[in-house]
Amino acid sequence: MSQQVLIVIPAYNEEQTIANILMRLRRAAPEFDRVVVNDGSTDATGNIVAELGEKQLRLACNLGYGYAIQTGLKFALKRGYDIIVCLDADGQHKPEDVPCLVKTLDESGADMVIGSRFCNNRPYKTPFSRRLGQLLFSHLTRLLIGRRIYDTSSGFKALRATTCEVIVQGSFMDFHAETIVRLSLLGFKIVELPIMAEERTFGHSMHSFTSVYHYPLKTLLLTIVAAMDALLARRTR
């Protein structure tokens, strides 16, 4: 493949998993570049990445997942990458699936490929409250864009640079359901690729007890704003 690919790995306090992720990426996709977006980690994450000689963008404090992703996307665009893969650092996504995600993006002509834990009845255990929220937003996408996206909260995605340019222009984006809805309404082609995800064995999920209730409300609001933004943009074309 002649296109330049960058793997963006947002990481916040992932000292238990980051080395394993990076070493597996070296073996599975040696032809792709990598960058870790260190989102203000207070543990040894940054030191481990530095000791491995990997490229790292250090944020001064913990800004959250959405800002970490946008930092990685802007870095990729500034350096002229054609394809960007986003991969979480918690060990749930298999680095070995990265080449398949990129291949699917290339062969399908899609603008974004989502590594989906739930399409094709894939088994993946998740707390009931979170699964309920995922089902809600899965069906919400069907209402808003005319087709169901089964895994709207997946952090495992491959995107073209042209797609990333639109994403970083959206100041309200959090890279989940709202981004999918906005891109779809703007005419971007989105494809889901079934993957087998692994259970988190170290660290803590970004979803706390309170965020189980806060996150769906926030995402619902962002999704509505994203849909309105996309529809207004279409009318002014």
Account of the protein in words:
It is a single chain. Strands 3-2-1-4-6-5-7 form a seven-stranded mixed beta sheet, with helices on both faces. The chain has helices at about 20-30, 45-50, 65-80, 100-110, 130-145, 160-170, 175-185, 210-235, and strands spanning about 5-10, 35-40, 55-60, 85, 110-115, 155-160, 190-195. With about 240 residues, the chain is α/β, with parallel strands linked by helices. Helix 5 packs parallel to helix 7 and helix 7 (about 175-185) packs parallel to helix 8 (about 210-235). The chain is built from eight helices and seven strands. The protein is globular and about 50 Å long. The longest helix has 25 residues, at about 210-235. Helix 1 (about 20-30) links the parallel strand 1 and strand 2 (about 35-40). Helices cover about 45% and strands about 15% of the residues. It has a single domain (about 5-235), classed as Spore Coat Polysaccharide Biosynthesis Protein SpsA, Chain A (Alpha-Beta Complex), CATH 3.90.550. Mean pLDDT is about 85; it is low at about 205-210.
